[in-house]
């Protein structure tokens, strides 16, 4: 039998997939599956080291929209041409598909996709006499956050990511900055942190969090905010759409029945502050088991798989954000109140034109260049310092500008 | 000092001791408690101390989700293997340094320790490339070797300080009795040093057990020990505290039990000759 | 036993470990030095080119470098101070007639067995979290503003976690040393009418000197490369407040995949560690000999 | 002043009664030596007096004051330990002065007293060394210096010389004797060395299994041991004990005769034996003679005696020095 | 067979010359004792013979064969260490049999030899104990058992009795003497105990600072010391040395007279002094007498002598026992 070693991230949907592989085994008795399930950062390190050194330890990789275009360009991934007759590639949501393709070829199949949106507490809004528009502006968000903040009772108007990291606070802040008209680089790869758009973004963020955010925000990431929101400490939370299924799950959340959803806010500039991400399955170039690997990918990202999950675990637990057909399914709409909002959010993101002004890169909440992980983390540290109050906004921006200029020069983008 | 110990002193000392012990142990206790909570209870405020809904479902999920036994076996193989190799190479070296010292012995020992000062991440890529080319990635052998190398300085040093306590008369007596060096090591030194060797073994098992950098970066499936098992529970997406607590409890339980049962040995060995 | 024969044998027997360790040091080190002179990004294979000392220049002029250096020293120094002082106090306490001393000792040893990642996660999320953590709850209970640990005192928080992990180690060594104190000497001091505090200053502390030395030496070796705790809790932030050299090198190696830069950083770290080591050996070498 | 009285002192460790109802008076200025076999309770008794152990029962009076509830430091005694128990990290000067410093004496005064004590003990050149840099004898002197500088009511010594080699032991013994003589301080001294006990003591206390067997001056004990135990314990080489006919003839169960009180002859004598070992130590010759029906008899003869193993020899005990004991081992007074 | 010859043996540690050009012959079956002050090189010399240290220069012959390049095991010698150096983890039986096992002797034979050795040493009941469960004397016997069972060409003893208490020391001394006598094996024995040396040795080698001062039988050394060092070293209490007029009168720079060769009188004598210390040890009395212009003289007098410190006494050296030394400390032969 062929043995596939699959590297995967330990998010809920992936874990669920592992428990459903009997179905795959039944259909492909000659393929054995072996799982390496890791926390996201560790996984990324391992997978990257493995593929960059061509060590060939994995047959299927779980990677994100950040890696796919970079790696595809390097020829490290096998184009997925043999996903099978009834795979229906065209059913994939266009922004997601665009994020995973290079020159029209699909290099990774999306397992689940996500964008970001506003999650808010309907009960608190009602109490404050507020009504959340479907498409809020930042000013409305700030205003509402201040109104519902009740620090004495441990209720904070808004929870946002603050922990330093390219995939933590910078994911949120990059997306937010897009809606403020900011950009990381101009067409000549000159960093833009010295521009007013970034200053506005960061000032707004820091002030908002100071007035209406929870303590310790500078070390809060997705999980910390999820815990805060679920325990009723947050009035609003702007974060990944996958969170929707957690906050509405009565087993995990105290506020499951009080949550409302809205699109990520904008500033009237034509870009929303939402991102686009898809955890996807890909096959490393040089894999001797590419056929089997593609078979597996096809199974895991197919419509049938969605049905399989629905039949075993209910529609609410189906991996979201990849196929248009899912959102057309009335059963799914019924089971997932957040379905429409998720779809709208995803569709409003444009990885190829993420910003108001033109940029030389793709990627919504990241810049799809290899240097971004390091650079994003370094800048993220500066911004978290501004949030923590150990540095000013101006100082943080200046430091970010200096770091970015340095790194980009070193990497040879700036000649 | 065998004067009567007053009751007050005993009471104060007992109260103070238990308080300090409790405070230090508390994070672990809290972790264990959390592992029996639902995710919702795990972060509820005010915190639930004992009167929460006790559940073992986290352990069930952990067991179901990943192969604890497989990882635990790997941890055991790794810990024992690297320690055994360390003893095999370390005992003769420590013997030589303790009983046939040269002028350079002291600097050699310090040099050995200094090899531990390189941050592992700085040499990750070279090691990774070497391992890739020698086919050692994700093999027990490869992992055992690297843990062995990482701990060898500590092994040699501990054994050295321990051997130095053994009267060299006895080794000389063996020599007069006609024992060769090999037999001297086998029949006389090693049996006499059993307590010291035992504590060396223990410390190394603990170090190898808890080592998280190489084990994470050089393994995938076959040789993955419990550190990898843990790494699959600190999810950046989703609620995981109770499950992580359960996984962590499982991961440290064997070593904790081992350590507790043999704490006397451990204490001895840990002293690195600091105590005469 | 200083016969030619045994000296020769000694050389032969210590050779395997010395050679192995030498190779283990020199091969990666040589490769690292070589890489540090290249422009070598793991994500750009085949594009390596010789750039001389450029990587060093970048690493050393990185504004983060001096902060990281400073943080490393603060971290190592503070943890040493806390564990040594705390260890001495705890050892003194454990030396008292405690009922159930065995169990208390078990509780005190326990943190030593916990993996660094686990302890960092437990501390960060279950204890120190300013909203849902236990400390925050205690603070509200007694009516004070909960401390926002990782925002206001990030480095101190890391120090606290690391110190917690190493406290048992120090305590154990110091306790054993304490118990090895000569009974007759204690009695002599008793005959001299030494009050408890004087006894501690004039007898206990000097007696512990050697044990303290060992604690410092061993802990320093491990503390110089503290990494997991930082990675899990603060990611080196906010700002650079918790970035140490090991984390900086990590960022180069596993975020940027800049092998050249990371290698230069690694070499710098080795040089720094050896400076610290030389300093330490100077400081305490004679104490170890005795 | 330093009169020490023990009345009905008992000490139990757990359930073991180590000191059994001891009554003893040590007069001011007296030099008292405790001897006895290993484990008989010598050290324990000394430590009870020092206050390092609590008595289980009984009274200890120092200058008339019952001290059983006082801590060691308050009893005004100094102790010299077998292991010296010097403070290894302090200079000789600080070692000697430590007790005074603890007593809160001004520095200048301490310095002066330490100098004086050092002068007495010939330690002046070593005052700034650490104990580790001293020889055994010098260390012992430091320990003594530490004891005398506090001008205690009494010195307590627990086998202070047993870690020294033979030659040094002789010297230090003389020094201790001289010192105690000149200071006139009460001293209690534990040893299991015959010679030390005999040469140092004004009064020897023979202990056995936690009880006092006999108290008296060295010569009293040598000449008039009150029982078999004391007779066998005091004197070296050991007294010869003879039972059976030879004893009955003298109206005793056992008779004892010291080796130095047996006359040898190559022609005639009371007992007729064969030399098994002859040890010539220059000044003396020790003969081990096997006498049929009597047993092995040790004899101390003159140095130049030319007897060889295997030779026949006649022995005659000096009848004025024969000790007679009854069935219970008690001496029979004529 | 076990004749040991040392020719021009030297040993340097680093730059320190510890053994200087030693020539010595130990005849087969002889019992030779090395004595000398601490640090004079006794142990080192023994270890050179054993092969535990390399000689720096010179030849060591055992039965005519130069062994300097042979490892200890091949020299056919047995050694008994001061610390006994028993293997703590082995039973007495294994301890004694270890050497035979290493030599590859069949098990049955080992068992038999061990039993035999144990019987000789009264160790049979303890054969299955560990050394830790034995008393000091028993341990020492095991160490000896380990040495004899291998039927070596010679025994080497390095202060084997110094860790025992006085009474045991006497017994073990006798046992060793008997054993060596009956086995007839060559023995080299290091001690710093006078009595041991005098009683055990056929031949005593007096070492000082790495050199041999004198070799001879115990009585030879006692009666005819060839220099001041040997004169002062052999004999206890130490010989009195007198310089100045009293010596010149007898045509010497220094004269020596042993304490046992000085007569006391309360009425008249050659020297007139004052008793400073009188030690009564029962059988003897040692007087320390201060004689103006001559110095302190130690005198051994009869046991019952009733002289007190401070009393006047007259001393007369026995002229037949006066030793005369020249300016270089060499004896002047009449
Ligand atoms: N702390 C203790 N606990 C229990 N038993 C003890 C303690 N100290 C002494 N003993 C016992 O009391 C008895 C007397 O001991 P002690 O030390 O007084 O003897 P000693 O006469 O000084 O002997 P030695 O000549 O060997 O020093 C011994 O049997 C000893 O085992
Ligand atoms: N391994 C060594 N390295 C350097 N010097 C040494 C060594 N062994 C012994 N010595 C020195 O050689 C000299 C003789 O030592 P040795 O042990 O032979 O003396 P000893 O006569 O046995 O003394 P003691 O009676 O104290 O045992 C001493 O000055 C000692 O310090
Ligand atoms: Mg005692
Ligand atoms: Mg010696």
TrEMBL record, chain B:
Location in the cell: Cell membrane
Domain of life: Bacteria
GO biological process: transmembrane transport
Topology relative to the membrane: Multi-pass membrane protein
SUPFAM superfamilies reported in the protein's UniProt record: MetI-like
Major place of residence: membrane
A Gene Ontology term for the protein's cellular component: plasma membrane
Keywords associated with the record: Cell membrane, Membrane, Transmembrane, Transmembrane helix, Transport
Regions that span the bilayer: 12-33, 76-97, 109-131, 143-163, 184-207, 240-261
Domain ABC transmembrane type-1: 72-262
This protein's record includes keyword ATP-binding: no
Sequence similarity: Belongs to the binding-protein-dependent transport system permease family.
Name the UniProt record assigns to this protein: Carbohydrate ABC transporter permease
Species: Kaistia nematophila
Automatic annotation (TrEMBL), chain C:
Keyword Protein biosynthesis: no
InterPro entries in UniProt: MetI-like, MetI-like_sf
Domain ABC transmembrane type-1 positions: 69-280
Keywords (A to Z) from UniProt: Cell membrane, Membrane, Transmembrane, Transmembrane helix, Transport
GO biological process per UniProt: transmembrane transport
Membrane topology: Multi-pass membrane protein
Spans through the membrane: 12-35, 64-91, 103-123, 155-178, 199-228, 264-284
Location in the cell: Cell membrane
GO CC terms, sorted: plasma membrane
Family listed: Belongs to the binding-protein-dependent transport system permease family.
Protein name according to UniProt: Sugar ABC transporter permease
TrEMBL record, chains D, E:
Subcellular compartments: Cell inner membrane
Main location class: membrane
Segments forming domain ABC transporter: 4-234
InterPro entries: AAA+_ATPase, ABC_transporter-like_ATP-bd, ABC_transporter-like_CS, ABC_transpr_MalK-like, ABC_transpr_MalK/UgpC-like, Mo/tungstate-bd_C_term_dom, NA-bd_OB-fold, P-loop_NTPase
Membrane topology value: Peripheral membrane protein
Record key words, sorted: ATP-binding, Nucleotide-binding, Transport
GO molecular function: ABC-type maltose transporter activity; ATP binding; ATP hydrolysis activity
GO cellular component terms, A-Z: ATP-binding cassette (ABC) transporter complex, substrate-binding subunit-containing; maltose transport complex
Listed Gene3D superfamilies: 2.40.50.100, Nucleic acid-binding proteins, P-loop containing nucleotide triphosphate hydrolases
PANTHER family listed in its UniProt record: MALTODEXTRIN IMPORT ATP-BINDING PROTEIN MSMX (PTHR43875), MALTOSE_MALTODEXTRIN IMPORT ATP-BINDING PROTEIN MALK (PTHR43875:SF3)
Family indicated by similarity: Belongs to the ABC transporter superfamily.
Protein name per its UniProtKB record: ATP-binding cassette domain-containing protein
Organism: Kaistia nematophila
Source lineage: Bacteria, Pseudomonadati, Pseudomonadota, Alphaproteobacteria, Hyphomicrobiales
